[in-house]
Design goal:
Dihydroorotate dehydrogenase, about 35% strand, about 70 residues, alpha+beta
Length: about 70
């Protein structure tokens, strides 16, 4: 697992921080690609002053090989 990954029972979580200069549409496309090809789903989004977004993605833990997250 990458640094920052967390596990909770049957789920694994990955925090992702998107800078304030990333548009909402670009952020949505990036996250949609990870959902489609990496098996991740959106768990939580928090918007901070300055436009920084902290996103938590989750996916069910599995023994099969899934692609790594690259945001």
């Amino acid at each position: 697992m990458a640094e920052g990954d967390l596990t909770d029972g049957e789920w694994e979580y990955r925090p992702v921080q998107l800078p304030g200069d990333v548009s909402r549409m670009t952020a949505a496309v990036r996250l949609a690609i990870q959902a489609e090809f990496g098996g991740w789903e959106l768990s939580r989004v928090r918007l901070y002053p300055g436009g920084v977004r902290k996103v938590w993605l989750r996916r069910r833990r599995s023994n099969r090989m899934l692609p790594e997250l690259s945001v």
